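Mods, move this if it's the wrong board.
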Amino acid sequence: MKLFNLYNVTFLFYVQIDSQDRKDNLKLVLNHLTRYFETNIIIIEASSNRYLSDEFVMSYEVDYQFIKDVGEVFHTTKYRNLLLKQCKSPYFFICDADILVNPMGIIDCLQHMSQSKNPILVYPYNGHFFDVPLEFRKKYETKENFTDLENSESSFKLWFKYSLGGIFGGRIVDFPDKSLENENIYGWGPDDKERYYRLRNAGFDVYRANYPLYHLFHSRNANSKPPNFGLPILDWT
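Not the wrong board. Structure tokens:
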């Protein structure tokens, strides 16, 4: 028996499996979600080759789509918009495939979205973005006990105090054209801050649940770093 019935919510994932770490992390994140929620999950895998097997996909009963993408930079904003167009539930969370949050942060955000009279952008964490190093990720894999992970927080490096990435949510009704992201931004860069300020300036309320976020270790490559086009990364303050 799952703790919460969240069939009015869809969790949207965009992935590019460029290492075993990425696949392992996705499995841990999906296990975490399905341990607490009966819900909907959509995954778009965009890569030069498919790495998520039918067996893997069927084990989580997710809606899955593979898109062949040979680009050097992962166009994340495009795939987030595509995921939103496929969402059929009134509420959604767009998720990176390597982050864990307290499930009560999700519930807290849903309560605020259901009551808000204004357009709303929600984050199921308070901005604190902790990095879970490899040795702790391996330890977590043995039991997948989220409470143990929380209790180890003092051993993790706080990467950001006011992060705007990793996971965020909203209501489909607030995006009538089912378009959320600025596709002129691609790769890892200023997209999270641009989204926050654009929506806030458009009159959206912003709500944050008072829980931290945990980022699971993975090896680094081009799609884990800002693309270098000879242009400065904007500092949205």
